[in-house]
Design goal:
- Helices cover 23% and strands 33% of the residues.
- It has 11 helices and 21 strands.
- The strands form 4 sheets. A 7-stranded mixed beta sheet has the order 1-2-3-4-5-16-6. A 7-stranded mixed beta sheet has the order 8-9-10-13-14-7-15, with helices on both faces. It has a 5-stranded mixed beta sheet with strand order 19-18-17-20-21.
- β13, α6 and β14 form a beta-alpha-beta unit.
- The protein is globular.
Amino acid sequence: MSTLAIETATADDFDEMNGFLGSLFHHPVDSEAQDVERPIFEPERGLLIRDGSDLVATAAAFTRRLGVPGGDLAAAHVSMVGVAPTHRRRGLLTAMMHRQLRQIYDSRREPVAVLWASEGRIYPRFGYGLASQRIHVSGDSTELRLPASMPDEGRLRLDRPTDRQADLARVYDRARADRPGWSARDDRWWRYVLVDPEAHRGGATERRVVLHEGPDGVDGYGLFRTKAEWDDAGPNSLTTVDEVVASTPAGYLAIWRMLLSLDLTRRLAWMRAAVDEPLLRLVNEPRRLNLRLVDALWVRVVDVPAALAARRYPTDVDVVIEVTDHLLPENTGRWRLRGGPAEATCTPASGPADLACDVRCLGELFLGGATPTALAETGRLRELRPGALTATNPAFTWHRAPSAMEIF
């Protein structure tokens, strides 16, 4: 374990930390993006390690709310994590993750922490569980067909996303209320999501938005860009989609009909489709989408009773779970979860446990993306009372699959 000290960041450290992470993740530091990212930086939640005058490790967290089954709750959004290649395997990441989790727990502000992982093998050792997955679309759009248009009184408009931020926010907030895994966006976060420096476009156009305007105003949008490419057969341009959010089936279908039929485009890329995305059921040949299932949001349950009581359960549940947490021993013990669609409680239990698992397992269950049965089949969740697994399984599902929109 390294003896280098962990320091709390200051506002003056942002530019250095941002440049450090740019070098680690192999992307250019753009001044326009940096100006938008600076206001969301919370220096009091930033950690850094120096070796002499050299910055060699960083970590940070953002204060946001996260959609969970039946509502939302405060969640530490962990980001800006990196260790210099000169200082790997010296315990720097472990030390920062331990410090960060202890700080989150002691503050009692946030029952869970969430992150996007650069590599899936890194964070399970700190108790993070894979809570949601996403579909990566990279397909041939030339032969894709959609159903006949639904009755639709609306119309489509093209615009610059930054000019329609208020409309996008209203649509997003309506949809977020029913989607576990979506994070709240205030004005600062919308500016972060919509910033579009040329250095980050990879030769593609600026980002555009197609809006669907229904009788009551904008009820759907799609963020996208295109990249011109030609080959011996003619145009072979690419449409890259960032987000499609709509509150009506007609609006959703209309937006996708336009995105799949842009002149001179032949290919489609979309990296953050939900596993229950309607598009997968609408196209006539889903194989042409070339779907790939990958990880999305990772959840670390920081305060077991507070986290389990904060979400809702589609069926009544009354179960005692024995939890093991080697990093936050306050979570280790037996907890009685009683809940349903309207409310839930989680309190210490003195009686025998029905199920047993580690805190990582709870993270995987938390948003409804995995079932107790699936985790029992891996051997990481154990049934201690016969029948407990069958009784508990439906309570940890949800009618919408968890998803995640932006990589923070």
